[in-house]
Amino acid sequence: MRLEGKVALVTGGNRGIGEAIVRLFAKEGASVVFAARRAVLGEQMEQSLIDEGYPAHFFAADVRDEESVEGLVRNTVATYGKIDIVVNCAGIAPASTVESMDVETWDNLMATNVRSMFLVCKHAIPELRKTRGCIINFGSTFAMVGAAGSAGYALTKAAAVNFSKSLALELAGDGIRVNALCPGGTDTEFLRDWLASSGDAKAAEQWLLDRHPLGRLGTPEDQAKAALFLASDDASFVTGHALLVDGGYTAQ
Ligand code: NDP
Predict the structure, then answer these.
(1) What is the count of structural domains for the chain?
(2) Of 188, 195, 209, 216, which is best to mutate to test ligand 1, by the most ligand atoms within 8 angstroms of its C-beta?
(3) How do residues 57-97 score in pLDDT, each as one tens digit?
């Protein structure tokens, strides 16, 4: 029960890695608020957590929108009284070469992956100051290496890493830790969609597997365990760090 008594706010929590984080944090004793746009998916998950006896609340929110994010933070505090842990997991990865990406897709990518992180942090910081809490922002291996066909996405993930370092420095005096979690290829619908967008999902998966020296893709649970470490007191001296959970992808 490494998060007993803690309140966690997880964006992008209704599926994939976010869902694994919500479930693990709840098992470890946290009260968890999670958010995403698709309410049906979120409400089903909320019910399944409640059925298992875990305190959890889903709020439909669009992390690109400031009013929506303000409401999410307000609702979290109204529900559980405080916030100890923020996980910015929501993200999208439209695959396209720079040349063929249209400006609307670019702007939406920046808003979903970068503006959201700024908005959630901005509105949660006053609450985290009261609890001396922590923030985990989602990067990627693509924060560290180039990714042909995903330059915009890779840029947003590099932004998450550097934003985390700068924010860690801004908030260290308040006892708030800020870290980035950088997954390698992790088997979720997000990854399956990204592989399919190459036109040959099987070949793209093999290409990706070949880049993971441990010889497999990650699981959402691999990432959730790393998030648990960063959120827990075990990481009480860890801030401004980018934790790679990538099966060795970036060691080469
Ligand atoms: P999923 O697509 O499974 O989950 C993404 C989540 O983000 C969903 O819950 C989605 O819910 C939510 N989301 C997207 N847009 C918004 C929005 N505007 N407002 C609120 N919520 C939103 O992806 P993964 O679990 O695979 O990825 C999670 C994170 O990990 C992402 O940041 C991704 O970049 C990162 N990552 C993933 C890797 C992988 O291989 N899977 C590798 C490296 C990094 P909804 O659509 O209902 O809003």
Answers:
(1) 1
(2) 188
(3) 999 999 999 999 999 999 999 999 999 999 999 999 999 99
Q: Quick one: average pLDDT of 207-236? A: 98
Pocket of ligand 1 (CB under 6 A): 11-12, 14-18, 36-38, 41, 61-64, 89-93, 112, 138, 140, 183, 185-186, 188-191
- Flag whether 31 is in a domain: yes
Domain range for residue 36? 7-185+218-244
Q: Which of 71, 159, 64, 158 is nearest to 116 (CA)?
A: 64
Read off the pTM: 0.99
Mutational pocket test of ligand 1: of 19, 44, 92, 243, the residue with most ligand atoms within 8 Å of the beta carbon: 92
**Of the ranges 25-39, 171-185, 188-202, which one carries the lowest mean pLDDT score?**
188-202
Whether residue 233 is contained in a domain is answered as yes
CATH code of the domain in which 34 resides: 3.40.50.720
